[in-house]
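Retro notes (design track)

What went well: tokenization of the new backbones is finally stable.
What didn't: we kept losing track of which sequence belonged to which structure.
Fix going forward: every design gets posted as structure first, then sequence, in one message. First example under the new rule, 421 residues:
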């Protein structure tokens, strides 16, 4: 699995662990995560599977080419090959389109018969009932943060036009039975959990059932949630009681016009400070996400967003310029408007630290430099200390040493990552 992310954030890649669990027991499986180790291309293997997103697809194609040069069959899968399978097949022997459950067994069987097809695709989306336990035993867990990853749902009913989640996992939430989630949690060795769900509160009824069931386990966990999380007082209380210590929240933009045009209509900028306050009041830290370069953004967006992030005392934040990923409505629209700098920017490496489209109300350079200015100021030493000792921290005063470690590590980690952009 190719990875080009900052090494401060080493979470065990759950997708590969789950894929390994689908592999028949008579087959020896090894996993290489380039985030923590180098690939030994000279190791004798029969079949290679490479999972990749658009950001790292050039490296995925390099890996595939190196193995195929040695006569080894290669299967490409993940978000990017799912969205652009006709491109991916040019660099591989087969493409696994969509979720591997339901097709991985067929791929292995066809490989054994030397009859691999070019494309494998499920009819519809898989059920999340009775999922196999991910093969975490195949990893050297000392190389990752002491946090276990768990998934309880897939899919999203929202249709944000810059997001590829629904294209990959569908427009409806599919939920794992709570008893299955608990059975997996009982096998975990760490006290801390990261829930990989795109929105852990997407189905409030299910979420409440899950959170109630988590309380006796005395776990601490972090996850991802929409801003709608504050609309249900009971849900907020159960979040805190179940051990939630942090949520990644997609604010995206302070412009209502931007949010509406991006179809992120469930976000209301007038409620954003309330979102931060209520989560902090319940002892939950916040990692806020913002996207710069949407059509209503001019050069004033940077100062306004930084001011909000500081006033709301966000614990961590991501400030990224818009990247139009293939397979999304945003990409299709910008391409039709001739606003992409390169239609296949992911193949040229333009997506690594570069703006790949023409913004409406500023230049590409203004967008890039403005984003960097916000990052530099938000992750300055004075900002990190100011946010840590702010009023909202009174709600988080029961932080453990591990929570303090995460706050420091992630703030300094983002500062290092952004300094290298």
């Amino acid at each position: 699995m190719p990875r080009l992310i900052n090494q401060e954030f080493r979470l065990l890649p759950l997708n590969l662990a789950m894929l390994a669990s689908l592999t028949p027991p008579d087959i020896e499986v090894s996993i290489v995560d380039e985030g923590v180790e180098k690939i030994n291309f000279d190791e004798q293997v029969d079949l290679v599977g490479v999972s990749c997103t658009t950001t790292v697809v050039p490296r995925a194609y390099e890996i595939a080419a190196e193995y195929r040069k040695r006569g080894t069959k290669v299967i490409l899968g993940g978000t990017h090959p799912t969205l652009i399978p006709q491109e991916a097949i040019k660099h591989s022997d087969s493409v696994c389109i969509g979720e591997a459950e339901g097709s991985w067994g067929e791929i292995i069987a066809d490989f054994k018969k030397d009859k691999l097809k070019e494309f494998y695709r499920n009819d519809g989306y898989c059920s999340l009932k009775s999922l196999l336990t991910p093969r975490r035993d195949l990893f050297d867990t000392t190389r990752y943060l002491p946090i276990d990853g768990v998934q309880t749902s897939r899919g999203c009913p929202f249709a944000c036009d810059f997001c590829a989640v629904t294209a990959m996992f569908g427009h409806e939430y599919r939920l794992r039975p709570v008893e299955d989630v608990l059975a997996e949690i009982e096998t975990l060795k760490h006290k801390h959990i990261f829930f990989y769900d795109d929105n852990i509160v997407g189905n409030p009824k299910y979420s409440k059932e899950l959170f109630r069931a988590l309380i006796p386990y005395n776990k601490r966990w972090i996850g991802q949630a929409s801003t709608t999380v504050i609309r249900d007082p009971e849900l907020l209380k159960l979040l805190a009681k179940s051990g939630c210590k942090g949520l990644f929240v997609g604010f995206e933009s302070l412009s209502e016009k931007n949010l509406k045009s991006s179809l992120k209509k469930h976000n209301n900028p007038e409620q954003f400070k309330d979102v931060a306050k209520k989560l902090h009041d319940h002892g939950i830290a916040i990692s806020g996400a913002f996207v710069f370069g949407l059509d209503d953004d001019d050069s004033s967006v940077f100062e306004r967003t930084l001011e909000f992030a500081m006033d709301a005392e966000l614990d961590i934040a991501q400030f990224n310029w818009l990247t139009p990923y293939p397979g999304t409505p945003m990409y299709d629209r910008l391409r039709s408007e001739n606003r992409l700098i390169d239609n296949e920017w992911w193949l040229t490496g333009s997506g690594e630290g570069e703006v790949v489209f023409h913004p409406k109300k500023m230049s590409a350079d203004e967008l890039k430099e403005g984003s960097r200015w916000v990052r530099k100021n938000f992750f300055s030493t004075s900002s990190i200390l100011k946010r840590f000792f702010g009023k909202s921290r009174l709600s988080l005063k029961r932080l453990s040493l591990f929570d303090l470690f995460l706050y420091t590590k992630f703030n300094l980690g983002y500062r290092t990552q952004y300094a290298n952009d």
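Added context from the reviewer: Residues 14-121 form a domain with the Rossmann fold fold (CATH 3.40.50.280).
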